[in-house]
Specification:
7 strands, seven-stranded parallel beta sheet, single chain, alpha/beta, Rossmann fold, 9 helices, binds NADP nicotinamide-adenine-dinucleotide phosphate
């Protein structure tokens, strides 16, 4: 009886046999997510624009005994998204359980300096990519017994932040609405849709800006973040994995904030 309970619980906290696509998995938060899903038993497919970093990461995952494949794709391009989903379908023989829309970028300029190109690249990379990949993945996800879509947004989707990230915040806020809308629409297809909204996470994308900030204000994290530090990519990977596992089977339409308490502390008040 006890063994039965233990094995049922172990199965609920596992991704053994799951097939996942994670966009932008060769660095930063995306890599943290790939590591976590693959270590929990999933077969993972990822993509990035740089062939050399993709080849390096694929070798590292193989050497670590993790089942990860991937191909080149710029998710801001519609034709490349179509090609990516064809490769994923071929790789997993038409099956997919998990789609993680992770890729995102920010163009940081005051509103009056932003151009049409800035608008287009931020919207196509951050929002249109996940919207379109979700449409493309739907037929495969519908076949799964426990399908999940995860969007990676940001606490900038809730609050304007100190540096000028209007376009970034607009896409992340829209992602929250997309999460809730799809969760509602696709519940009938047994597809759960959730979102993870990180605060400051130490990655290649933010390192330079954070280092410059800490030179100006060494107490920044201790003053603004209750846990008094930046997060790590694996600290985003873990809640993403939780939201994909059977143990979270009653969670959908949720925005899971991973920010060391930043939002409850009111980080973005003017000082
Ligand atoms: N870091 C933070 O503090 C933070 C906070 C809140 C939210 N987020 C969100 O978390 C997500 C990941 O951020 P990150 O900081 O981990 O970024 P990152 O360190 O820059 O990692 C980006 C990853 O995505 C790939 N990538 C970038 N643009 C791509 C594109 N157009 N098509 C395909 N792959 C692409 C990169 O590979 P290639 O360069 O080879 O393409 C790399 O694998 C983003 O949505 C971001 O908005 C980050």
């Amino acid at each position: 009886m006890a063994d039965d309970l233990k094995s049922r619980l172990a199965a609920r906290w596992s991704l053994q046999g799951y097939k996942a696509l994670v966009t932008g998995g060769t660095a930063g938060i995306g890599k943290g997510i790939v590591d976590e899903l693959a270590a929990l038993g999933a077969s993972v497919y990822t993509c990035a624009r740089s062939s050399s970093s993709l080849a390096d990461r694929l070798k590292e995952w193989k050497d670590a005994g993790l089942d990860v494949a991937g191909s080149i794709c710029d998710v801001s391009s519609r034709p490349q998204r179509l090609e990516l989903m064809k490769s994923v379908s071929d790789h997993f023989a038409g099956n997919l359980d998990i789609l993680v829309n992770n890729v995102g970028l920010s163009v940081e300029k005051p509103m009056l300096e932003q151009t049409e190109d800035d608008y287009n690249i931020v919207f196509s990379t951050n929002l249109e990519s996940g919207y379109h990949l979700s449409q493309l993945a739907h037929p495969m996800l519908k076949l799964s017994k426990n399908a999940s879509i995860i969007f990676v947004s940001s606490i900038a989707g809730y609050h304007p932040i100190a540096h000028p990230t209007t376009l970034y915040g607009m896409t992340k806020g829209a992602m929250h609405q997309l999460t809730k809308s799809l969760a509602y629409q696709w519940a009938k297809d047994m597809i759960r849709v959730n979102c993870v909204a990180p605060g400051g996470i130490e990655t290649e994308a933010t390192r330079e800006r954070i280092n410059a900030l800490l030179v100006q204000d060494p107490t920044f994290f201790s003053r603004h973040v209750p846990l008094a530090r930046q997060g790590k990519p694996e600290e985003v990977g873990a809640p993403v994995a939780f939201l994909c596992m059977p143990c979270s089977s009653y969670c959908t339409g949720h925005i899971f904030v991973v920010d060391g308490g930043t939002v409850i502390n009111g980080l973005f008040q003017r000082s």
